[in-house]
Amino acid sequence: MRPIKVAILGFGTVGSGVYELIETKQDLLEQLLGGPVRVDAVLVKDVGKSRTIHDDVLVTDDFSEILRLPELDVVIEAIVNVEPGYTYLRRAIEAGLYVVTANKELFANKGFELRQLAEKRGVKVCFEATVAGGVPIIGALKQLLRFNQVVKVEAILNGTMNYILTKMREDQVSLEEALLQAQRLGYAEADPANDVEGFDVLFKVVILLELLTGRKIDWDLVRCSGISDITPADISQASVRGERIKHVGSLVVDDQGQVEAEVRPVSVGESHKLYAIEGVDNAIVVTGDLTGDLVFQGPGAGKYPTASIMIEDLVSIFQSIKKAAVSR
Ligand SMILES: NC(=O)c1ccc[n+]([C@@H]2O[C@H](COP(=O)([O-])OP(=O)(O)OC[C@H]3O[C@@H](n4cnc5c(N)ncnc54)[C@H](OP(=O)(O)O)[C@@H]3O)[C@@H](O)[C@H]2O)c1
Q: What is the CATH number of the domain that holds 120?
């Protein structure tokens, strides 16, 4: 079998993790896919930065060069912001390439359009890493959607916010102090607005809603607030009641497909499944009409958890192509 040829867009925490895992896990990939996986190109913003990339890999800031590569199969995208990623992924799909993305902001804004375009073009767009990083919740929901109806999802989807709320309670410090600690440990961005104001969780809730309903979601439907107004007094009053404040994204789908969704701090008691989720972990409680509550918990971010989940997407794309070829 000829190698599966990959271009990686973005070579930061996630993109470099994808590259390293493809380099170091060739034997396993060959076992899973029946042939090697080869990185032919890496696209970045600043080609002058020093990076550990083999000399025979094209490093470029020009997406047209990527599209001109012979026999490219798949584009793995880990850039930030909606653009230029959206334009690149649209062009990749139009050129008949498969797409794997971790970019939640892009996918919350444009995922519906990309999936529609991919369906028309007969390729796949995989986005497991956009929600809860290393926790394979998209695949689990797709699995459940076959027979169960998912009626409710409640989730902690931002590890940084969960770390801050945990620190505020454990160390009795202000939000600003807990945020500084999160930044020192590399959990929080230098500009934490998307996290603290709840937008990062909003992106993930929109992606889940579009998956569950199959419709384009109007963002105004989702009430969104972050944790910027939470004070140490709120945290200690919750503790007195035997509760903890968690930042929760939740959605309810009725049997007519109508949805209600919100993102906000919630005070939960000991019996709630999100009560014990502490530190940087993510957790998603999915209620199926027949299964009842299922809890998925794990690392919502990080280089190898996120990169490995993107490679899981790559493997499932090419395993399903192989299966389809065999059954023909
Ligand atoms: N970090 C995580 O744990 C995690 C988890 C889940 C999802 N994600 C998502 O994955 C994506 C990447 O995250 P990250 O943490 O890897 O980001 P990062 O470390 O900041 O890396 C971003 C990469 O994108 C490149 N880039 C930025 N603007 C570009 C442009 N205009 N054209 C071409 N390349 C551009 C940068 O190029 P230069 O190298 O030249 O600067 C850099 O290589 C984001 O959408 C994020 O939301 C991240």
A: 3.40.50.720
Helix (H) or strand (E) holding 98: strand 98-101
The reported pLDDT for the residue numbered 188 is 83
Residues of the chain with pLDDT under 70: none
| pLDDT score of 1 | 81
Helices 175-184 and 159-171 meet at what angle, rounded to 10? 120
Q: Which atom of ligand 1 is nearest to the CA of 302?
A: 3
Closest CA to ligand 1's atom 17? 12
Residues lining ligand 1, judged by CB closer than 6 Å?
Answer: 10-15, 43-46, 49, 78-80, 84, 102-104, 129, 133, 301-302, 306
Report CA(299)–ligand 1 centroid distance (Å). Answer: 18
pLDDT at 235: 97
Ligand 1 centroid to 78 CA: how many Å?
5
Domain range enclosing 203: 137-300
Identify whether residues 148 and 287 lie together within a single domain: yes
Q: Which candidate, 55, 68, 54, 49, places its Cα nearest to that of 10?
A: 49
What pLDDT sits at residue 309?
Answer: 97
For tokens 């309810």, the residue is 252
Instruction: Give how many domains the chain has, as a whole number.
Output: 2
